[in-house]
């Protein structure tokens, strides 16, 4: 939705505006304009955060753009951080940031919906879902530990779930809990539900979005070239057709290969010249750990109910034909399955995600 132009009011806002203008290729950006509505994505967000860290000499978490998607709000966050750094004895907010990313503030008298990260580790994919949910529902994304280079990358679904429950309880100590996720995020939500139930907590909603299960897993992508293509296409939101135009050197490890691919993407003008390639290695480590965790996980029968959203369009190269089948046997209290238009990836975007949001709104209203 377009907003009236409001000019920067101080030097901090002016500096942020200039960084956004350079990264987004837009001449004039107001302080209330939304980063993502201007065409920003996860790739550009990484570049912007890197530039802001260097310019203001302060730590900013990766999700800062998600939490503060306007120049005005981002300026407030930066000024609060830089001010605290100059006060003796006051603890400065430092990375690592919380694993929780607020996608929608909602109302204090409503229980939040927690959405678990997919294989890439970030929660940018849930922006559109959050925007279509009822505005009074608080929505949090839970991003992977280890994205900030200062915390350990977790390697099993069970270990991730234990840490994510700790994060959830910082904003909601007790149930009933509403959990969901797409792809790996659904597996993580399932394991969180298992652990919470074992602790005597109630899980009022467990929603899986095209989540594969045992026997119906996606192609494992054993080839590093396959992983690289998938990584560039999904995690970094690049069109990987340019890969066929280049001959990749058979030297170095997998991370070196991806770094090379991104350098080639710079040459092809698919990503900005000042994109911080060095940060890519951490994303790759998280991606690889998540991929292995997904394949290694052995889910047990869950005493509750599952809501499953299946993507109608299946990619024969990567996707299992019926990702919902394993969950039918694992849901002791039954499963409701909805077939939604789109692919494993596009089901998370308009117009398909709006249909999912409408269904979730009903469940959230009934149980909140």
Quickly list its features.
single chain, 368 residues, alpha/beta, Non-ribosomal Peptide Synthetase Peptidyl Carrier Protein, Chain A, Rossmann fold, 2 domains, 7-stranded mixed sheet, 12 helices, 7 strands, globular
Please state the structural category: alpha/beta
Number of domains: 2
Tally the beta strands: 7
> Can you say what the CATH homologous superfamily of the largest domain is?
Alpha/Beta hydrolase fold, catalytic domain
Q: Could you name the ranges where pLDDT drops below 50 across 5 or more consecutive residues? A: 86-97
- Measured by DSSP, the beta-strand proportion falls in 5-15%
The assigned CATH architecture of the largest domain is: 3-Layer(aba) Sandwich
Cα end-to-end separation: 29 Å
Estimate the global geometry from the Cα principal axes: globular
On the 0 to 100 scale, the average pLDDT is: 83
Helix content: 25-40%
Topology:
Layout: H1 11-24, H2 42-56, H3 64-67, H4 71-85, E1 100-104, E2 113-116, H5 127-132, E3 139-142, H6 157-168, E4 177-182, H7 184-198, E5 203-209, H8 224-235, H9 254-267, H10 280-296, E6 306-311, H11 325-330, E7 335-340, H12 352-367
Parallel strand pairs: 2-3, 2-4, 4-5, 5-6, 6-7
Antiparallel strand pairs: 1-3
Helix pairs in contact: 1-2, 1-4, 6-7
Could you explain how this protein is built, in words?
The longest helix has 17 residues, at about 280-295. Helix 6 (about 155-170) crosses helix 7 (about 185-200). The protein contains 12 helices and 7 strands. Mean pLDDT is about 85; it is low at about 85-95. It has helices at about 10-25, 40-55, 65, 70-85, 125-130, 155-170, 185-200, 225-235, 255-265, 280-295, 325-330, 350-365; strands at about 100-105, 115, 140, 175-180, 205-210, 305-310, 335-340. The chain has a 7-stranded mixed sheet with strand order 1-3-2-4-5-6-7, sandwiched between helices. The protein starts with 10 loop residues before the first helix and ends with a helix. It is of the alpha/beta class. It has 2 domains: about 10-85, ACP-like (Non-ribosomal Peptide Synthetase Peptidyl Carrier Protein, Chain A, Orthogonal Bundle), CATH 1.10.1200; about 100-220 and about 295-365, Alpha/Beta hydrolase fold, catalytic domain (Rossmann fold). Helix 7 (about 185-200) links the parallel strand 4 (about 175-180) and strand 5.
């Amino acid at each position: 939705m377009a907003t009236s132009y409001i000019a920067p009011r101080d030097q901090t806002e002016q500096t942020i505006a200039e960084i956004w203008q350079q990264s987004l290729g837009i001449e004039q950006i107001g302080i209330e304009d939304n980063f993502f509505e201007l065409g920003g994505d996860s790739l550009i967000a990484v570049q912007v955060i890197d530039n802001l860290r260097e310019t203001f000499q302060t730590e900013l978490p990766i999700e800062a753009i998600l939490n503060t998607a306007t120049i005005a709000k981002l300026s407030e966050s930066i000024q609060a951080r830089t001010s605290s750094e100059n006060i003796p004895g006051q603890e400065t907010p430092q990375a690592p940031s919380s694993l929780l990313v607020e996608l929608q503030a909602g109302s204090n008298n409503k229980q939040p919906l927690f959405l678990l990260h997919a294989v890439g580790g970030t929660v940018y994919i849930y922006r559109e879902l959050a925007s279509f949910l009822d505005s009074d529902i608080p929505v949090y994304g839970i991003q992977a530990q280890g994205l900030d280079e200062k915390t350990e990358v977790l390697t099993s679904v069970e270990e991730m779930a234990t840490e994510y429950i700790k994060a959830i309880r910082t904003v909601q100590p007790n149930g009933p809990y509403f959990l969901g996720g797409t792809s790996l995020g659904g597996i993580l939500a399932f394991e969180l539900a298992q652990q919470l139930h074992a602790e005597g907590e109630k899980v009022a909603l467990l929603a899986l979005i095209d989540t594969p299960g045992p026997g119906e897993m996606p192609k494992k992508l054993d080839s590093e070239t396959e992983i690289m293509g998938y990584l560039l296409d999904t995690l970094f939101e690049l069109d990987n057709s340019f890969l066929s135009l280049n001959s990749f050197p058979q030297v170095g490890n997998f991370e070196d290969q991806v770094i090379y691919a991104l350098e080639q993407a710079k040459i092809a003008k698919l990503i900005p010249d000042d994109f911080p390639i060095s940060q890519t290695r951490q994303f790759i480590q998280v991606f690889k750990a998540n991929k292995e965790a997904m394949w290694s996980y052995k889910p047990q029968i869950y005493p509750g109910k599952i809501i499953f959203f299946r993507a109608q369009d299946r990619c024969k190269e990567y996707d299992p034909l019926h990702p919902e089948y394993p969950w039918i046997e694992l849901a002791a209290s039954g499963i409701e399955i909805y077939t939604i238009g789109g692919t494993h990836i596009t089901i998370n975007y308009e117009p398909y995600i709006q249909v999912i949001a409408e269904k979730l709104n009903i469940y959230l209203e009934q149980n909140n």
